[in-house]
Amino acid sequence: MNNKPRIALFIGILCISIFPILVRLQLTSGLISAFYRMAIALGLLLPYIIVTKKFKLPNSKLLITAIICGILFASDVAVWNIAIQKSSATQATLLTNLAPVWVGILSYFFFKNKPAVNFWIGTLVAILGMITLVGFSFFLKLNFDMAFSLAILSGILYAIYILVSKNVLSKVDMYSFMTITLVSSTLFLAIVNYFAGEAFYGFSNDAWLVLFIQGAICQLMAWLLISYATQNMRATRVSLSLLSQGVIATFLAWLFIDEQVTLQMIIGGIILLFGISITFIENKKV
Description:
Blueprint: H1 4-17, H2 19-24, H3 30-52, H4 60-86, H5 89-96, H6 99-110, H7 117-134, H8 136-139, H9 146-169, H10 174-195, H11 205-232, H12 235-241, H13 244-257, H14 263-278
Helix pairs in contact: 1-11, 1-13, 3-4, 3-10, 3-11, 4-5, 4-9, 4-10, 5-9, 6-9, 6-12, 7-14, 9-11, 9-12
């Protein structure tokens, strides 16, 4: 069995997991951070695309769908950031990470490739692990307000993006797809930031360094790898595997910024990863 997609997915998730630590530094606003995450990634990708001539313009239908993918992803990031600003990072991240559930439900009703039984079992176990990770008492404090709704919307947008991108990536090469989505994401977030009154410059040197790392590693490198995995793996499996970024981010936060890690968090992380591993038991398809 070809393990390259799984290795690519793991490294991609590792790259994404750095992002929450950088955001916690709060050197820029969430919205402008999202914009530069896309813009810097696009700026780094374009020279490579031009020199290697890897970009191939797809037919109009696929082009429009790829543009929609970029707007979906940008919307997910923007909505997620707003949810964090209006509530807490924990609540917003937890609800956004329900995306695998939405992927499974949407796949069941709208796609021929239905989720396997082990996906649903793995999802339930992974969600139990996620609940254990953040603490059961946390759920008693959830506020069912606008921030709650935005976080749920973020997860749904993320799920739709994964499913739509899976369809496009089966017909469009990875580099062309990334170029189109980054262009549409950047333009969309530029408009959002403009109307939100965000400043596009005047940041510290440390802020620019963090923005560059976000664009180069958390976006470009991460999503090239994840897009490759998405091409060669089930969308449901990829979406559930992305839950592990919470575990990795927790470990990195403990390692680099001295955030406390409790025994409960460790147990929750183990349960979550075990749930993800269940989805890889069935070997009929990669």
